[in-house]
Each structure stands twice: as structure tokens, then as C-alpha cells.
Amino acid sequence: MRAVVYADVRTVAVREVPDATLEAETDALVRITSTALCGTDLHMYDGRTGADPGLVLGHEPLGVVQEVGRAVQTVRPGTRVVIPTHLFCGTCVMCARGLSAACLRARAQGPGAAYGYAGMGTYRGAQADLLRVPWADANCVPVPGEPGDGHEDDFVLLADAFVTGWHAATLAGVEPGDTVAVFGAGTIGLLGAYSALLRGARVV
Question: H/E/C letters for each residue in 8-66?
Fold first, then answer.
């Protein structure tokens, strides 16, 4: 399959890599239709993270389930799904408390894991034709429609960018009637501003 890989500092390349496959009964194999770029990818690109050459990049995917393991119950081949950036088991004590970004089972070296990111586990990234999704029942969020439809660009934001903006508005405690200032109008800043409006801010 084709994938975008880290080659060296400030160098990425599209290369052929071995196909992603199911490795456990709880896995799904997802054919990627869209994947966003993240500002944190720049940490690897600029050489600040110790990424190894050949690392498949990307952690903001949207796609269609192609195959599932025997234990998967909530998605089937043909289901369109968005996949959260931080993968998690859904059942450990941290996941049970709603702290899935600090999952204790996804990475043996410590809490938390992510696709295609240096130091966050052995999981290949989503800037590729196929992605193996562990614990598919926890990590595949079904969404309606078909690949390439009018919601493709919207749904891919649910993997990371929109939820980061929403998280900012939530942490700031935005309530109906508030006046909100957002400093920095990049993607996350704009989505934070939009989230403030959704939470009822009077002026942003």
C-alpha cells in the first residue's frame, strides 16, 4: 500500500509499505478516504521528536471499514468511520473513567498512544491506503454518508481538529451570553471560536 513516511528532517515521501492487516480479533482494517494534517506532525517534520525514518505518519483519519476481526461487534465492512487520534482499549481503569487519552493498555511504555507518532507506540499512521485500528469497538465512530460526499471534509475534522477546538471552549468554561476572545486564528483557533458560538457565546 502507499503511505506518507518520515524520511529525514524536513523530508517526507510517498512510499510503498507492507499492507496493514488484522493482528487481533478486536481489530478493524479501514480503507482511508481522508486524513488531515496536524500541527503536531511538524514536530516530527522539523526533527524535534526523534522520529525514525520509515515511520508512517498521520493520526486524523476518516474511512470505510474493509475487514473486521471476529470479536468486533459495533462496525462491519462498509461502515463509514472516523477514528480518534489517541487509540485506547475502552476497558482499562483510565478508559472507564473517561480518560481514554491516558489508556493503560495501548502502549506498554506508559499511558496513552497515537497513530503514526514518535514515542506514542508502534502503531502505523493514517496517511496511508489502509489503517489497522485496534479495539475497533472503542476506536471506530460510525458516521453517515458515503466517501467523497459533502460531509467528507467536515467528518475528518472529528478525528482531532474540531474536538480540540471544542475542548478549548469547554476548558475555558464558555457559557451562553459570554464574550470570548480567541488569540490565533489557525485551524484550532477558528474551531475554538466556532465551538464558543455553539456553546452560546454572544460575541466571539
Answer: ECCEEEEEECCCCCCCCCCCEEEEEEEECCCCCHHHHHCCCCCCCCCCECCCCEEEEEE
Digits of tens for pLDDT over the chain (204 positions)?
999 999 999 999 999 999 999 999 999 999 999 999 999 999 999 999 989 999 999 999 999 999 999 999 999 999 999 999 999 999 999 999 999 999 999 999 999 999 999 999 999 999 999 999 999 999 999 999 999 999 999 999 999 999 999 999 999 999 999 999 999 999 999 999 999 999 999 999
Number of H helices, E strands in the chain: 6, 7
What is the model's pTM? Answer: 0.94
Give the position of cell 473517561.
Answer: 98
**Cβ–Cβ under 8 Å, residues 83 and 37:** no
Closest to 49 in 3D by CA, of 118, 144, 120: 118
118: nearest Cα among 35, 41, 60: 41
Cell numbers that stand for 60 in this block: 486524523
Q: Given CA atoms 105, 109, 110, 111 in this order, what sign does their dihedral have?
A: negative
